[in-house]
Write a structure and sequence with these properties.
Strand content: 15-25%
Order of helices and strands: EHEHEHEEHH
Low-confidence stretches: 113-117
Oligomer: single chain
Strand order of the largest sheet: 3-2-1-4-5
CATH topology: Rossmann fold
Radius of gyration: 13 Å
Bound molecules: magnesium ion
Structural class: alpha/beta
Shape: globular
CATH superfamily: HAD superfamily/HAD-like
Distance between the termini: 16 Å
Helix content: 25-40%
CATH architecture: 3-Layer(aba) Sandwich
């Protein structure tokens, strides 16, 4: 997949480092090089904004987790939607990744399996 055809949404609690999870700022920045990155959490958008500010990363979107199924309308150019979450979820059109699975395969998910550094 070429640039910006992948969107990755990140949960916060239980998912991000500093919030009980293993995903670091470095992982997110790596993903952001070639994909649309934002947040989808049960926290309010305002609360998510504060967390992302603390991370020092500007998200391209922030939504309440229940509104994730609406994102494909907003990004018609995106071919693949991922959501990284510590919970097992079923979200229409999204592939749900556990945080550890994301870390292990960050290259694959962000570069379509190509060897880029
Ligand atoms: Mg969570």
């Amino acid at each position: 997949m070429s640039a910006k055809e992948v969107l990755i949404s990140f949960d916060i609690d239980g998912t991000l480092k500093g919030y009980g999870g293993p995903i670091t700022t470095k992982h997110i920045k790596k993903a952001k090089e070639n994909t649309i990155v934002g947040g989808g959490s049960s926290r309010s958008v305002r609360s998510q904004w504060i967390v992302w500010q603390e991370l020092g990363i500007k998200p391209e979107f922030l939504v309440f987790k229940n509104n994730l199924p609406r994102l494909p309308e907003r990004y018609p150019e995106i071919k693949k939607f991922f959501h990284v979450d510590d919970l097992v979820l079923n979200i229409q059109r999204f592939t749900i990744l556990r945080p550890r699975e994301f870390i292990k395969n960050v290259q694959k998910f962000t570069y379509g399996g190509k060897n880029e550094n």
